[in-house]
Amino acid sequence: MHSKPSFDPICENGNQILKPFLIGVTGGSASGKTTVCEKIIEQLGAAGIANQEKKVSILNQDSFYKDLTQEEHRLAAVGDYNFDHPDSFDKEFDNNVIKISFTKENYSSSNL
To answer: How far apart are CA 40 and CA 79, in angstroms?
Structure first.
């Protein structure tokens, strides 16, 4: 039997709230990353809960690809564009989403 993870709460106006944290899951194509994330969500008790009610989110790196130039579209069309290269991702957008997700206003007790 698995036990639920414990978290160190922080207090705000006498209310305990959980400070968010990030779990990074990496691996090659078809290596089971999505399955691992689904298992984490299941173990945290968030499986089957509507997105707006969840306290767990998945940020999929596929959401952070840069817009392709015409030349990159041409290369992609013939299989010559490397979507796994770090330069294919919009790192600034990725970083901003993570920063916003971890601002106090986004995890305060009024938003839980």
So the answer is: 34
Query: Please, are residues 10 and 107 in contact by the beta-carbon 8 Å criterion?
Result: no
Range in 42-46, 49-53, 89-93, 94-98 the model is least confident about: 49-53
Query: What is the fold, at CATH topology level, of the domain defined by 9-111?
Result: Rossmann fold (3.40.50)
Domain boundaries, the chain: 9-111
End-to-end CA, the chain: 28
pTM: 0.55
Place of tokens 């990159």: 72
- The Cα 18–Cα 10 span in angstroms is 6
d(CA 54, CA 112): 9
Contact 58, 23 (CB under 8 A): no
Rounded CA-CA distance 43/3 in Å is 9
